[in-house]
Description:
The structure is a single chain. The chain is α+β, with helices and mostly antiparallel strands. The protein has one domain (3-27, 37-121, 142-236). It contains six helices and 17 strands. The chain has a five-stranded antiparallel beta sheet with strand order 1-12-13-11-10, with helices on one face. A four-stranded antiparallel beta sheet has the order 14-17-16-15, with helices on one face. A hairpin with a 5-residue loop joins strand 8 (129-131) and strand 9. It is globular. The protein starts with a strand and ends with a strand.
Amino acid sequence: MAIAxxxxxxxxxxxxxxxxxxxxxxxxxxxxSDAPSxxxxxxxxxxxxxxxxxxxxMAALAVAVAQDLGRWQTGVDFVQGYNAGEILAxxxxxxxxxxxxxxxxxxxxxxxxxxxxxxxxxxxxxxxWFQGSGSTKVLMNPQALRTxxxxxxxxxxxxxxxxxxxxxxxxxxxxxxLAYVSAAKGGCDTNFTFKASTTSGGALKYPNxxxxxxxxxxxxxxxxxxTNLGNGNVSIDPTSxxxxxxxxxxxxxxxxxxxxxxxxxxxxxxxxxxxxxKFAKATFNANIFLCQ
Length: 292
């Protein structure tokens, strides 16, 4: 049985649909300091909103982290970096639990994660658009993204200090690993499902608490929609194109203004804001393709 852990977006093809707000039992399980404010609840209840593009980008980061790093342990896998200003960056090296950050990735750079991190750069300004509903599109704001990424990463570190197994409103101390299972149409856009298990492959005792390992992507972000599907599977719901989903699109015109792909899709047909164009490689990251 699926257990919704966050506000869910309704209507697979309509971002303007209502979302399900937190119920009374969920609100009562939160400490007063961590409970969502009235503004947060009202915002979640409106729609899959994405005014400056950061809602979709933050959820895409959560998926990419699961794909590349195989866990949500961003308090140790990321650091504060600098590129003409403070940005969120990947860590490297190891700690008591093994490799961390980019040292966990076979390519040594975590290409999917780095593509989204590079959207923080000023070089991405006025270039990265996200597909909205119908013919609408949203321009991503790099300054807003880096401010939010750093702020939520710091919030995650605060959550991790309070980690406690069995708590209703904190992340677990129990370590986990994630493996990609599938992607399908979701409430906001595309549901990505991952198999969550212990580091040795066993069943997690506290899978619902993984919700609080996603504070770095904002647990009240409607595009997260963390759900415990049972049998060790969990899902989240970022926008189309921002994460590789292992589907074949040969000959198809992809409805995505921006697409992240390890393999080149330059020259392939795309549709952005209801207008058919072709993908071109971004100048600021080799794995980002812009529909232009």
